[in-house]
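Q&A log
Question type: sequence-to-structure
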Amino acid sequence: MQGNRVIRSNLSRITSLARFLFSAAYTKPSEFSTSVIKTNVFTPTNNFTFPFHFSSCSTSNLETLNAPKISILDEKDCSGSDNDDEEDIVATDVKQLKISDEGVLKDAKTLVDILREFSHKRSEMRNKIEECGIKVSSELVSEVLSWVRNDWEAAFTFFLWAGKQSGYAHSTREYHTMIAILGKVRKFDTAWALIDEMRGGETGPSLVTKQTLLILIRRYCAVHDVGRAINAFYAYKRFKFAVGIEDFQGLLSALCRYKNVQDAEHLMFCNKDVFPFNTKSFNIILNGWCNIIGSSREAERVWMEMSQRGICYDVVSFSCIISCYSKARNLHKVLRLFDQMKRMGIECDRKVYNAVIHALAKGRLVKDAISLMKSMEEKGVAPNVVTYNSLIKPLCKARKLDEARQAFDEMLQRGISPTIRTYHAFLDIIRTGEEVFGLLESMRKMGCQPTNDTYIMLIKKFSRWRQFDNVFKVWNEISENGNGPDRSSYTALIHALFLNGKLEEAHQYYMEMKEKQLLPEPKTDELLQDWSYNKQFVERQRASLKAHQPQSGQNTTVISKKSDQDREFLQQPETRRVYLNVEGCLVCLRFIPFMVAVLTVATKHMGLGTGGKECPCSDEPWSWQ
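Response status: OK
Response body:
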């Protein structure tokens, strides 16, 4: 009898703990990027007012679809940026492409609508495309592929159809875009088949370039398949390309870009006889530890290694190490290296200034940061959007909204257009859903379209607030205004739903993700598979209990109430008799392993981000309109 009470008590504790775990809060990473972003100049006007009460400005009306477009990066700057964004694992630069022909835009939208409407009916999709009678051009193919790049089957179906149209042949750009899309979903065999097709046989000219192979190298690095990335590098010789130190540095850069820094460093040392050490090779490794991994300890080790081997530091070396200490909030070392750089006679570039300004702003030395910004301008180094982002983001985190608004206002007055990172800094501190959607609308009016990173951030924010209507509103906007949800978007939504107790919905989107052949992360797989297994286990036990219910009822002893009345209460101590529901107890006992499993899984995945409730209150009123 007492054992049953203990079981019920423990079960109550487990249930309470489970509810607590499901309501734990998402932890949002905050990282700073020192990458230089090209901007379009805004011209002041009085026709549009930004909702922060900053200066008025507008942008030119670009006749383009509201979606980011793909163009392959020419990744020559080894300093790079700390771009660990898993959404953009395509090694591509996302930018807006201007299309002047309205007919191409209309045709592209028609094709995209067909591809999305019949995404699960491939045969009907091909028939509808044939019936639309659209003339294919290189510009049209690039536009459509950029729109459907997160649905590789639709993209590949359209790519094959376009290649068969008379009067059109794929150029290198279209092949590169399609290979990048295939590599993103690990369809490497199909990607290699396209490369063989690009060779053109014995008579036609080959369209294969070093950039073609570099795209696949980056794809392999993105999925951490270092061996195949190196094999793709060796394929340079198979295609009769001369391999030089710059090509090897491209391999090192690709490895470091996707956090394979240790493998890149090992590869550099193993090939020191073929590709001798130089400053740029070490800078790639240094940047990997500094800005990609963010390990100041490993960065110091590589820094000392360069000194011991006689490798000269340059402005890129100092930019990397200063940026690393800036992110680590080590202002003392930032200023010491900044002084050392000046003593060595190395001219500071914009990236160094940006890193120091960011460190000063993080250290709440705003006046010093602004003074340094003026000093860099006096030396002929003009501030850019990254400079202002370096100032605005720490100010937002420190809740110094007036200073952040002033910096934003000054940036607009200089004709520097804000980037998505600028808006992310303000979105991060917004406290209500109305403010969020108000700022999103203002972003679009300013010509800055939200990216999947933006939507992922908002999904996590709204799930923290338990505002799931807004979560799904954002989810719908991904498809309506962007290129559709990708792997990272699904992962964010699934974790948000699961860790807030919405298990069935999380499993539904997990299955939808797999149907689209978007490979879930291993942690997502483990999370949902453990839950699915335990759910099936409980259902089997419940069915078994129902099957044995008559036997359980027959074995239950019915105690007459008269037995208590016939006793002499003065001769015996008073006792309490508990009448147990046998079936209910068995269900509780069967349910305990399931709850333990759920708790184990939830505890294991606390690092993925949880979903606790944050009070959407604001220290300062905001007016977005």
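Response note: Confidence is low (pLDDT under 50) at residues 1-100, 574-583, 606-625.
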